[in-house]
Amino acid sequence: MRRVIRPLDMDQWKEKRQQKNTKPVDIAIDLKDYALEKDIGKNEQNYRTIFRKCSDVVIRPFKLGTNCEVKALLVYVDGLIDKSLVNNFLMRSVMLLMGGKEHLMIRENSFDLLKDCVINIGEVSVEDTIEKAIDKILVGECIFMVDGHREVLSVSVRGWEARGISEPDTEAVVRGPREGFTETLRFNTAMLRRKIKSPDLKIEIKTKGKYTKTDIAVCYISALSNQGVIHEVFKRIDRIDIDGILESSYIEELIEDEPWSPFPQIEYTERPDVVAANLMEGRVAIMVDGTPFVLIVPTIFAQFLQSSEDYYQRFYLSSLFRMGRFLALNIALLLPSIYVAATTFHQEMIPTSLLVSIANQREGVPFPALLEALVMEFTFELLREAGIRLPKPIGQAVSIVGALVIGDAAVAAGLVSPAMVIVVAITAIASFSLPAFNMAITLRILRFPITFLAGMLGFYGIILALLAILIHLTSLRSFGVPYLAPVAPFRLDELRDVLLRVPWWRMDYRPESMEPRDKRRQGERQKPSPENRNGKGDGGNA
Fold this sequence. Notes:
- The protein has 17 helices and twelve strands.
- It is α+β, with helices and mostly antiparallel strands.
């Protein structure tokens, strides 16, 4: 007779089958449940439990002493340590020297002998909690434990693979240093030390991220940086409580003053010379392990229009380039909106011959100038994004060929006018000339609403948009420093390094906006003396 399965039996059957097919789930490790013990066997068991299913963690028990009567334990992560240091220096010195008769080693003095006499590696520290020991293991250090001692020895044998130092692709210069930061924090701090050889350069390490435990280095010159700014930086970093930090942008979003603003309030760079120059003006640098981009605070608007090469070229050339960048900023932000407003509402402002030429070009275009501009801008942004995301050899071809083909086909089909293609091309070139990529992105975003207002209200819409942007910029602060300094509030002395770049012998003082502890940058009378020209003066008489 066939059995009829009732609904209740079916539910029980499903539950039993689910329990049968369910595999045991690993629960989160809480290190508070573990502690360092004097018994080496219990310590080994604790470490094997904590690092269960961690195939890259090596737990190596061994014995020391002439008669191998002292038990010891070695723990490290394969891939984060230099095996040659561990095998040829650490293990060899420990097992050979500790087994010799010259060391009268017993269980009670084995820890002190290891620390003071045997281990021949520079960085050795003593840890007394299992949390600190685990942290040391996971950052590439080797842990030594000896039976009968609760404390452990942490030996620095870090040796993972790292990218070599190369020139940054995002901040290329014609004249200047060619080295850039890498993803290894200690390499980056060393490059900064090479630039600033002073004990006043302080580098303090903070660790953030529940799972990543990312090292964050706060760098400043104690004799120059404002103590209030330094305190505020540490206060905001200490407030961070997050699962992980993989890039400096995590820190940037968590510590900036106004997160809803489209304008970047923190500068980032890959160049050690840029960081060193900003530190010597009284700013603070924030390095994050795992990324070559270093954050610089406080930041003002003018910094995003300055390049490190401005200080390596002659001052009149740098001033000319800076004025060109300010012009490019206005073109990148306003040119499409001005074209739309002029052709739609204010034709009387266009010269007659030019107006006739534009009218002839737009005679067969079925779309209004506003829609034409928005579609062309959006299409160009898609092409630019596609060129970035594709592999480099293909991306450049796609962005260039795509722009040429689409622009030519759109004009031939009568969908857009040739003048609009020229306007969009000039706007793109102007945005490419800005040295700061994050500021160029901001201008690209703001260009769309300004163009829309220009199509609705003409030049009145452009003026309203500019007033709104200006009011917003004057309200911004970066770690207490006004974003538009030294224009608002106005400081005449600081304008010598904003729109223009005066000669070095005229930049006697550091920016007052940063409130540096030492305001003077250089000694008096640095201008070249006329009496030393043509071999005259003391040098000529010598």
